[in-house]
Write a structure and sequence with these properties.
This protein has 270 residues and is mainly beta. Helices cover 6% and strands 39% of the residues. The chain has one helix and 21 strands. The strands form four sheets. The chain has a nine-stranded antiparallel sheet with strand order 6-7-8-11-20-13-14-15-16, with no helix packed on it. Strands 5, 9, 10, 12, 17, 18, 19 and 21 form an eight-stranded antiparallel sheet that branches.
Length: 270
């Protein structure tokens, strides 16, 4: 039996309304057109269930072949543009080609106004070259913060300096199986209520809880609190986004995952 696409049918005007006039010899079967896919950009905004940060490597602004900044298309706008902290970052196949001594900073704002990762899910599409050494994903902020993948790829560490004791409080999240050097979608979700979850290509790899931190600000991307230590990402980074908890977060979370999977060809069954 043949299918008939009504979107291509002759349109006739009648009584102020348009009617689809269908004429076809032989048997026909009406087939509803596929529902339109809502793009990630539909959720660019600030507030619960919305996307304040979306930095796509392919949108990077270059000068002399080197990346100067990556505009933030998300709802927070240019305040959260990623500004190159070093002068030799390049693009490779549409990805930020980062070595451990290279990093970005949300330097259109002060450290005490840096993006707060508390109460968000952070998405990163990246291809790590190896996991033989510690690799810092986020750092600095106020209070000082580090989020890093430990050498071996089997622990994600969160450090934050306490406002009360001035000492660092550390939360280690064991990852199983350990991270392998391959392109995938990393999701880091930190709830204000305490839970932390680490997901990779849609699979939960580890979970834990922080001791009630009121915030988790990160001023640097691909670096810890001391960029001169050259312990940043040794990674190709394709995409970064954040989704605020609350509101429609849970539904949007799955939508964002599906869109990033399709855009970057990650092969997840979403």
């Amino acid at each position: 039996m043949q299918s008939l696409d009504l979107t291509k049918a002759l349109q006739l005007s009648h009584g102020g309304r348009e009617l689809a006039a269908v004429a076809h010899l032989g048997a026909t079967r009406w087939q509803a057109p596929a529902a339109p896919v809502t793009p990630i950009s539909a959720w660019y905004c600030t507030g619960p269930g919305r996307i304040p940060i979306r930095c796509l490597a392919a949108d990077a602004v270059l000068s002399g072949g080197n990346v100067q900044r990556v505009p933030n298309a998300g709802g927070a706008g240019a305040l959260f543009d990623l500004i190159a902290g070093t002068g030799s970052i390049t693009l490779t196949d549409g990805a930020l080609d980062l070595t451990p001594d290279e990093y970005f900073r949300f330097s259109n704002v002060a450290s005490n106004a840096a993006p707060d990762l508390m109460g968000t899910t952070m998405f990163m599409v990246a291809d790590m070259r190896n996991v033989t050494s510690d690799q810092y994903i986020f750092g600095i902020g106020s209070p000082q913060t580090d989020i890093l993948l430990r050498a071996g790829g089997n622990v994600m560490r969160f450090n934050r300096r306490s406002e009360v004791t001035n000492q660092f409080e550390t939360v280690d999240i064991p990852l199983s199986p350990a991270v392998a050097p391959v392109r995938r979608l990393y999701e880091i979700s930190v709830s204000a209520a305490g839970p932390i979850t680490i997901t990779m290509n849609g699979d939960l790899r580890g979970s834990g809880s922080h001791p009630g931190w009121p915030s988790l600000r990160a001023w640097n991307f691909a670096s810890g609190r001391n960029p001169v230590n050259a312990t940043g990402l040794n990674t190709l980074v394709y995409d970064i986004a954040s989704l605020v908890h609350g509101g429609e977060h849970d539904a949007r979370h799955l939508d964002v995952r599906a869109r990033l999977n399709e855009l970057h060809g990650l092969g997840m069954a979403t």
